[in-house]
Amino acid sequence: MKYEGVVIRPPSEADSLILQVTVGCSHNKCIFCPAYKAKRFRIKSFDEIKEDIDEASIHAQHLRRVFLADGDALIIPQQRLLEIINYLNAKLPKLRRIGIYGNAKSILKKSIEQLKELKKNKLSFIYLGIESGDEVTLKNIHKGITYEKMVEAAQRVKEASIKLSVTVLLGVAGTERSTIHAKETARILTDIQPDYIGALTLMIPPEAPLYSMVEEGKFELPSPFELLQELRIMIAESDLHNCLFFSNHASNYLPIKARLPRDKNSSLKLIDEVLSSGDETLLKPEYLRAL
């Protein structure tokens, strides 16, 4: 497999073949994200992609899952994307599931009929980074999308019967809008009703544009217990009907895996016990946290 630069995949795609069909991110303006800043976005040629699929078909005929990278691979025009997916299906006979990153803009470029066509050809998971439901925060981090359009995109995915996994980002609003961010994120999660939610905690490496704002005193990251309070609000104030909620990413201070609403009370009880204790030893130590 010929990868360009660092290739990122969701934790749930650990057992998947990672097929890089785009390089970088079509948006690439979020100030908290350093992942694709060194890459200029492009869609790989079909010949490049075909070569990787041919290699996989020789060495990994058993593969059941494929993830299409890089960031926002869903931006690929429909016919090109179908060409890639159809070739995958032809060369990997045991393939059962294809996952892909998509942002709200790329999702909205696809009609419901087009999304259903992709689903028919085994594209069954779309990963959408929401980060926050707070309009001010979305603007501040240069997300390039509104609350309303985020909900519209998510509903389009669900209407096409494609599983929707979203990410939210603890701490992304800084201390100034921490509570508002948590409450508005709970609201957007309720409006969207995703199948899966992954809560990550903001970490700011020097390559991220937000890093200079921290150094200049223009952005203050909430403390670990303030971040945990954000997590509590998001769980407590959301009304989710059938959703798996995870905060077990390596960046988080307190791992939680919950089926909501069934495990809502037990999750809140755990968070409350840690918050009331004020005991930092109950949190993941800094040296174990990672992006």
Describe this entry's structure for a reader.
- The chain is of the alpha/beta class.
- It has a single domain (14-284), classed as Alpha-Beta Barrel (TIM Barrel), CATH 3.20.20.
- Helix content is 38%, strand content 17%.
- The chain is built from ten helices and ten strands.
- The chain has helices at residues 46-59, 78-91, 104-108, 112-120, 135-140, 147-159, 178-192, 210-215, 224-237, 264-277; strands spanning 17-20, 22-23, 42-43, 65-69, 97-101, 123-131, 163-170, 196-201, 243-246, 257-260.
- The strands form two sheets. The chain has an eight-stranded mixed beta sheet with strand order 1-4-5-6-7-8-9-10. Strands 2-3 form a two-stranded antiparallel sheet.
- Helix 7 (178-192) links the parallel strand 7 (163-170) and strand 8 (196-201).
- Helix 1 runs parallel beside helix 2 (78-91) and helix 7 runs parallel beside helix 9.
- The radius of gyration is 19 Å and the shape is globular.
- The model has no long low-confidence stretch (mean pLDDT 96).
